[in-house]
Design a protein that fits this description.
By secondary structure, the chain is of the alpha+beta class. The protein has three domains: about 425 residues, 3-Layer(aba) Sandwich (Alkaline Phosphatase, subunit A), CATH 3.40.720.10; about 90 residues, Arylsulfatase, C-terminal domain (2-Layer Sandwich); about 170 residues, Sandwich (Jelly Rolls). Helix content is about 20%, strand content about 20%. A ten-stranded mixed sheet has the order 7-6-5-4-8-1-9-10-2-11, with helices on one face. A hairpin with a 2-residue loop joins strand 16 and strand 17. Helix 4 runs parallel beside helix 7 and helix 6 packs parallel to helix 10.
Length: about 775
C-alpha cells in the first residue's frame, strides 16, 4: 500500500503543493542496544563471575553495571538465540534443537514462525539501525546455500547488515564467512595475522562508523555474537602463553578456587554448596603426568581464547565510548548455554577424529601439543574443564540441570542504572530479555509485522529488578527441555531429570532409548539451594508431583511434544537442495557449496571429470576440492601433471600423480574411485587418475573417511579454501587454465550413519 500523499496535485506545478513522507525517527535520546553473546562459556569461566579466565573488559561492564546470578538459558545454542531475539520459548519458536536436525512437528521444524517477530523486526520500524555480526545459527541448514531463499537469513529477519557465519561453528582462522546475503572470503590469511574475533569486532566498528558518518543520532541495535568459546579453541600464541602453568593445579582444585572467588564476590549466596565431582570425571591426581601436561595445556589455550575475545570486545566498547554513547547504550552480555563437554574425557586435537569414531591417543596429541590453538588444530578441552567451568553446578551444555542452563548475565546502562556493581538474585530467563528491552525503550510490541499478526511474548520483563534490588522476579514458572532432558522451575522450586543424550553417555549406564516414564526426577528448592546440591524428592514427593504435572501442562502449551531424545531418527528427512541425484555439475566462480547441498561421495564408487582448456604454457591449480586441512580430497594440476590428494583426517594422505603431462588445448581430466572394501562405512578401494579417458595413475586406498571430513566440509570448484586440503600447495591455489565445468557421478544410494551424524551436528553447534 502506498503512503498517503498530504500535498495537493493540481493541473500545473503552480497550482500544486509538494509533500514528502516524514522518515521514521526514534524518540529523542533513545538508547542504543548492544547484545554480546558468548558461545559455550560456563557460569564460572569469566573473571567477573569468579572464573580463572581474565576478562577485564567484561569485568569493567560488571563493575559499572549489574550481574544477574540467577539467569538461565535453554542449554543449547540455536534455541537460546531464538528465545533471546523473540521473547518466546524455544519450542514455540520451532527451535527445539539445532537447525541441522529438524523434525516434522510444530516445535521442531527449526523455522522460527514469522508471527514470532525478532527484536530487529520491531526496532527498525521504530527508527533504529539493526546489525548482526558473528554467529547466526538460526537459518535451517537446508537454506544455508546460495540457491536458497533468504527470508530466514539475518537480512530476511529485520537486520539491515550482516557479517559472520551461518552455522554453529567455524574455523577461527579460516572461517566460512557471509556478508549480508552472500558468501565472502576472509580479508586476510592466518599467516597475515587473521583471526575471526578481531575481524568481527572490526566489522562491528565499521558498521557503526558508517552509521555515524551519515546519521549522528540514530540509535542502533547491534547483535554481536562471538565464535568463542566454542571449539575450535583458537587464539594467538601470546594470549595462550599468558596462562602457561596456571592450570597445572587441575580441574578439582580449579573448581575449589572458582567457588571461593564466587563466594567472596557475592556471586553466590553464602549458603550455596559446591556440588561434588561425579564419578565419570576422573580425579585429577589419578591422571598420568603426560595426561596432566596435555590437559592443562588445553585449558591454557581455552583461557587464552576467552581473554583474546574479551580484548576485542573491549575494542568495540571503547569505540562506542569514543562516540560518546557508552553511557546511553544498554549492553546485555550472556552465554548461550553452559560450558561444553563435547571434548569428551580426553579432549581432542582434531574433532574430525571424533566425528568418525577414530580415537586420538595421548601420545599423538602430546606429539602435536604445540599445534593447539593454531590453524593446524581443531581442538577442544576434556570435559573435566567444562565441569570446573560450570562451578558450582552439576552437568553442562545440552542438559537442564543448572550446569547446562545457568549462565552469566551482565546488564550495563549508566544512564539508566544507578546501582553500579551490584548483584541481582532474581530468577530470569533468556526469554525475558526481549520484553525487558522493549520496556526500557518504551516500545510496545507491535500487533503485526509485515502484515502478519504477532503472537504474544512469553518472557517477563525484569526491568523492575534493574532499578530495585528487592523487586519480585515476576517470572514464576519456566519449563526446560533439551534432547529429552526435562525440568521445571516454579516459584523457587525446580524439578529436573536427566534422560541421557545420544552420543554423550558418561556413566556407561544411562540409555536415552529407555521409556521416559522410567526417568528419575530430582527436586531442589532453588531459592535456598542455588547449586542443586540437596535433592528433596524423597522428602517432598507431593511438591515433586506438582511440578511434574505443571511440566506436562507447559509442554503442551509450548509445542514440546512429542518427546524425543535423539536426533538420529528425525534427522535430515527433507530432500537435499536439487533433490537426490547421481549426476552433479559444478562450475567455477561460485560460492562454496555447503556439505548438505553438495554431492556426497563417501562410502560409494564415483567419478570426477573436469572439462578444461590448457594454454600452451600449461596450467596449474585446483579443479575441485572438498573439505579442509582437517580432512577431504582435492583434484588439481601442478608441474604440468594431474594430481589427487585424499586427506585422511590430517593423519595421512593418499597422493596420486599422473605419469604423463596434461596436454594443451581442450581435454578432460578426472579421478575415479572403485569401492572394493566390504564394510559399509570407510571402505577402501581403487583410485585412478584419467586424462582423456586414459588411466595415468592407479593406487589402493586401504580405508576412507566414513562420516564427515570435518570442519569446512564444503565443495569448491576452481579453487581451494584458506585451510587447503593438501599440503602440496598453499590455498586457494586457483586454476590458471580455463575450467569449463566439473561433473561428479556417484553410484548407488548414500550410506549414512544417522546416529553419528546427530552426534556430529550437536558437537558442531
Amino acid at each position: 500500500m502506498s503512503r498517503e500523499f498530504k500535498g495537493v496535485v493540481g493541473r500545473t506545478l503552480e497550482e500544486s503543493t509538494p509533500a514528502w513522507p516524514q522518515p521514521v525517527r526514534a524518540r529523542e535520546g533513545a538508547p542504543n542496544v548492544l547484545f554480546i553473546v558468548l558461545d559455550d562459556v560456563g557460569y564460572g569461566q569469566i573473571s567477573c563471575f569468579g572464573g580463572l579466565c581474565e576478562t577485564p573488559n567484561l569485568d569493567r561492564l560488571a563493575q559499572t553495571g549489574l550481574r544477574y546470578r540467577n539467569f538461565h538459558t535453554t542449554a543449547l545454542c540455536s534455541p537460546t538465540r531464538s528465545a533471546l531475539l523473540t521473547g518466546r520459548n524455544h519450542h514455540t519458536n520451532a527451535m527445539a534443537g539445532i537447525v541441522e536436525f529438524p523434525a516434522g512437528f510444530p516445535g521442531y521444524t527449526c523455522e522460527i514462525p514469522f508471527e514470532n517477530g525478532l527484536l530487529s523486526e520491531i526496532l527498525v520500524p521504530q527508527g533504529y539501525a539493526a546489525y548482526a555480526v558473528g554467529k547466526w545459527h538460526l537459518t535451517p541448514q537446508i537454506e544455508m546455500n546460495m540457491a536458497a531463499p533468504r527470508n530466514r537469513w539475518p537480512l530476511g529477519r529485520g537486520f539491515e547488515r550482516f557479517y559472520g557465519f551461518l552455522g554453529g561453528d567455524t574455523d577461527q582462522y579460516n572461517p566460512e564467512l557471509c556478508a549480508d546475503n552472500h558468501y565472502v572470503h576472509p580479508p586476510r590469511t592466518p599467516e597475515e595475522g587473521y583471526h575471526l574475533t578481531e575481524d568481527l569486532a572490526g566489522k562491528a566498528i565499521e558498521f557503526l562508523t558508517d552509521l555515524r558518518n551519515v546519521e549522528p543520532s540514530k540509535p542502533f541495535f547491534l547483535y554481536f555474537c562471538t565464535g568463542a568459546g566454542h571449539a575450535p579453541h583458537h587464539a594467538p600464541a601470546e594470549w595462550i602463553e599468558k596462562y602457561r602453568g596456571k592450570f597445572d593445579m587441575g580441574w578439582d582444585r580449579a573448581r575449589d578456587a572458582i567457588f571461593r572467588r564466587q563466594k567472596e564476590m557475592g556471586i553466590l549466596p553464602p549458603n550455596t554448596s559446591l556440588t561434588p565431582r561425579p564419578h565419570w570425571i576422573q580425579q585429577w591426581e589419578t591422571l598420568a603426568e603426560d595426561e596432566k601436561r596435555l590437559y592443562a595445556r588445553m585449558m591454557e589455550v581455552y583461557a587464552g581464547f576467552i581473554s583474546h575475545t574479551d580484548h576485542h570486545i573491549g575494542r568495540l566498547i571503547n569505540f562506542i565510548e569514543e562516540l560518546g554513547e557508552l553511557d546511553n547504550t544498554i549492553i546485555i552480555v550472556i552465554s548461550d548455554n553452559g560450558a561444553s563437554a563435547e571434548g569428551g574425557p580426553h579432549g581432542s586435537l582434531n574433532e574430525a577424529a571424533f566425528f568418525n569414531r577414530l580415537p586420538e591417543s595421548i601420545g599423538e596429541c602430546l606429539s602435536r601439543m604445540d599445534d593447539l590453538g593454531t590453524p593446524r588444530a581443531y581442538n577442544h578441552y576434556p570435559f573435566g574443564w567444562a565441569w570446573a567451568g560450570n562451578t558450582p553446578f552439576q552437568r553442562w551444555k545440552r542438559e537442564v540441570h543448572e550446569g547446562g542452563v545457568a549462565d552469566p548475565c551482565i546488564v550495563h546502562w549508566p544512564e539508566g542504572i544507578k546501582a553500579a556493581g551490584e548483584i541481582r538474585g532474581q530468577y530470569a530467563h533468556v526469554v525475558d530479555i526481549a520484553p525487558t528491552m522493549l520496556e526500557l525503550l518504551n516500545i510496545r510490541p507491535p500487533q503485526q509485522i509485515h502484515g502478519i499478526t504477532q503472537s504474544p511474548m512469553q518472557g517477563i520483563s525484569f526491568s523492575r529488578s534493574i532499578h530495585d534490588p528487592e523487586a519480585d522476579s515476576g517470572h514464576e514458572i519456566q519449563y526446560y527441555e533439551m534432547l529429552g532432558n526435562r525440568g521445571l522451575y516454579h516459584k523457587g522450586w525446580k524439578a529436573v531429570t536427566y534422560h541421557g543424550t545420544e552420543g554423550m553417555i558418561y556413566d556407561g549406564v544411562t540409555d536415552p532409548a529407555r521409556p521416559f516414564d522410567e526417568d528419575v526426577w530430582e527436586l531442589y528448592q532453588i531459592a535456598e539451594d542455588l547449586s542443586e546440591s540437596q535433592d528433596l524428592a524423597s522428602e517432598r514427593p507431593d511438591k515433586l508431583r506438582e511440578l511434574q504435572e505443571l511440566w506436562w501442562i507447559e509442554a503442551a502449551r509450548n509445542n514440546v511434544l512429542p518427546l524425543q531424545a535423539t536426533f538420529s531418527g528425525r534427522g535430515r528427512t527433507r530432500p537435499r537442495p536439487g533433490g537426490r541425484r547421481h549426476h552433479y555439475i559444478y562450475r567455477p566462480g561460485g560460492a562454496p557449496v555447503d556439505f548438505f547441498a553438495a554431492v556426497n561421495v563417501k562410502n560409494r564408487s564415483h567419478t570426477i571429470t573436469a572439462e578444461v582448456e590448457i594454454p600452451p604454457g600449461g596450467a596449474e591449480g585446483v579443479l575441485v576440492a572438498v573439505g579442509s586441512r582437517f580432512g577431504g580430497f582435492v583434484l588439481y594440476a601442478k608441474d604440468g601433471g594431474l594430481r589427487y590428494d585424499y586427506n585422511l583426517l590430517s593423519r595421512g594422505h593418499y597422493k596420486m600423480q599422473s605419469t604423463q603431462p596434461i596436454p594443451s588445448g581442450d581435454c578432460t581430466v578426472g579421478f575415479s574411485f572403485e569401492k572394493t572394501g566390504p564394510q559399509p562405512f570407510g571402505a577402501g578401494g581403487i583410485g585412478r587418475l584419467h586424462i582423456n579417458d586414459r588411466v595415468v595413475a592407479e593406487s589402493h586406498f586401504p580405508i576412507t573417511v566414513p562420516i564427515l571430513f570435518g570442519i569446512g566440509e564444503a565443495l569448491r570448484c576452481g579453487r581451494d579454501g584458506g585451510a587447503s586440503v593438501s599440503d602440496d600447495y598453499a590455498g586457494p591455489f586457483p586454476f590458471t587454465g580455463r575450467l569449463k565445468k566439473v561433473i561428479v557421478e556417484v553410484e548407488g544410494g548414500e550410506r549414512r550413519d544417522l546416529a553419528q551424524e546427530a552426534a556430529i551436528g550437536l558437537a558442531r553447534q
